[in-house]
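Figure S7 source data.
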Amino acid sequence: MMAADQIVHGVPPSLSAKVVGSFAYLTVRDRLPTILTKVIDTIHRNKNKFFEEYGEEGIQAEKQTISLLSKMRNELQTDKPVLALTDRLQDTDSWNQYLQRQQSLHGDPESVSWFKSSWLYVECYMYRRIQEALWLNPPISDYDVFNEGKTQSFFESQQAVMALCTHLEGVNKNMEEFSKNQLFEHFNKLLQVSLWGNKCDLSISAGQDNSQKTSPIDSLDSLRPFILVDDSNMVWSTLMSIQRPGQPEKTPAGRVDIVLDNAGFELVTDLILADFLVSSGLVREVHFHGKSIPWFVSDVTAHDFQWTIRQTMAANHKWMSKSGVQWQRYVKEGMWSYHDHPFWTLPQEFCDMAADAPDLYETLKEADLVLFKGDLNYRKLTGDREWDHTVGFDTALRGFGPAPLCSLRTLKANVQVGLQPGQGEKLTSQDPDWMTCGKYAVIQFCNPK
Ligand code: F6P
Ligand code: MG
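Tokens for the predicted 6-O-phosphono-beta-D-fructofuranose complex:
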């Protein structure tokens, strides 16, 4: 029987834990069970809180949830087949149809299992099963098992956040006087701050503290050599080409969408960039896209988004609280808006979006530029496949292109396209872990038109 991936003509197979010793294998074998164990501990530690809030029912829910999660951990560790979801949520059918498709592609339901399926699929599936365990146990259905870690990572990066807000204040104050070149320089810096903000996710460190302690602005020069692809000029040209039909040149127009990744420090860097985009008049609107369920340990949900703005407002630091007040105003006045869509927490590659989530694809089409933050978004953009490093980004996107798009990503998984011939080999000889250590990054752009 031919592997399902090889059936797709000319497209390399998906990364999978079936390759013993690969990063996917080590993730499924070690990192995912560690994350699950932490989730179980967190729920158990909050037993009293559930009791206080829901009485005996809360205790029962805690026990049941833990039992479902332990069962799942066992299925994972013994490479059992992936099971259909049993809850009745908005996305349950999509997940189960996806599973059926995998089973019929493989011709054998048993072979759609934790170690034999695609890594992207089973890793996404684990987070959705955590949600299922909670949803099957009201009253604790809405409990975010990753909230504590996200909150902690925000507070641990306070110094860096203050430094960034102080920098932003200095930029905003002088905005009127900037030449186009100066504006580009400031944009570039904040784009890189948002890029390096992606170093701080909690999934790669299996939930360990990974927060930013120093001012990122001061580190940008020393980090530059680690940006393997830098298409920031093309991102800037895209912003410059935004049409202002029938309006004076200074009237802001256009929209940038940011497909968010992690809460904590990274989210603040994204808000800082979005603030600059709007306050400079480069664009009129920024649409943020987050997750509708807790995801990959540190990803942003609607609650995290609002909480972060409120905390920034409440900070006991002049420029930080000023930034927070400004951000709240942007939200209130509609220059900023937060959106979520179930597609972001499905296992699909983004080339499937037009068919599987046409409404979301249409929405993204309205943007002048879409910024995709982080590693998981890169994996979904490229399908998480064994691409040769010199394959073009546009080829790996396989037709996905609702609008000009740019990935801002630090490398934490072994997929990387769009490199120069020999660049990958050189990196491998210098630094064998270059694709997974989070030290390298890309600003990778594609204009599909
Ligand atoms: O393997 C590392 C990992 O857990 C990947 O699964 C995932 O791509 C990444 O961490 C999450 O990183 P990010 O938050 O940048 O998407
Ligand atoms: Mg993430």
